[in-house]
Amino acid sequence: MGGFLFPPLVACIEKSRKAFRNEENTNLDCQSWQRIYELDNPLSPWAFEYAESFSFSNFNKESYNRPDPEEVRRVYRRSWYFALGSAISFVTVGVLILPGLFYAFKLPDVVYFKIWIYLVLVLLIASAGVALFMPIVWEGIQLYHLWRMQLQPKHKGHIIPRIECSEAPNDENSQSSCS
Q: Where are the transmembrane segments (predicted)?
């Protein structure tokens, strides 16, 4: 519920603050919606942008660091590929496969139409299931990877390296060689 109420509330507060100070006077709607769109941008976090609007007294802009754009791309690469694959697969199914099944039948009568409707319903239920459960599955996978990382030793930099020495001298006058 807060996800529906919070962005318009932030936009109204920001718009009223800027209108009161007369900071912007052209195309207020587009600029407000652009700022709402940028709320989830990790390179421009909302706390950094709206600290002045909400008068965050304990927010220090100098101590807040923004992530590297390459790091953000690396972290969200799998999500980007999943979104592209999902869009391509839904377009393929909706434009090629389902109409192809419909045109495969010679005469579309009531029975074939019911089959068509049931196929569309199955596709809708499957897509709704994927949309509902995939975030939970991805979060479970991320938690599993985090748990595996916590089980592994943290750093091995504190271990003193071994010095290998050969005990057999090369000749009688030389000492043992160490590397």
A: 80-103, 115-138
Percent of the chain with pLDDT over 90: 3
How many other C-beta atoms can be found within 10 angstroms of the C-beta atom of residue 101? 13
How far apart CA 74 and CA 72 sit, in angstroms, is 5
Q: Phi/psi at 8 (nearest 5 deg)? A: -65, -35
pLDDT digits (tens, 9 = 90+) for 96-134: 887 777 777 666 678 878 888 898 899 889 988 988 898
* Cα–Cα distance measured from residue 11 to residue 15, given in angstroms and rounded to the nearest whole number: 6
pLDDT digits (tens, 9 = 90+) for 132-160: 898 898 888 988 988 888 887 666 555 55
* Nearest partner of 86 among 147, 117, 130, judged by Cα: 130
Report CA-CA distances (Å) from 172 to 67, 85, 169, 176.
62, 71, 7, 10
Q: Which residue's entry shows tokens 């769109």?
A: 37
* Helix or strand holding residue 132 (H, E): helix 110-151
> How far apart are alpha carbons 7 and 46 in whole angstroms?
11
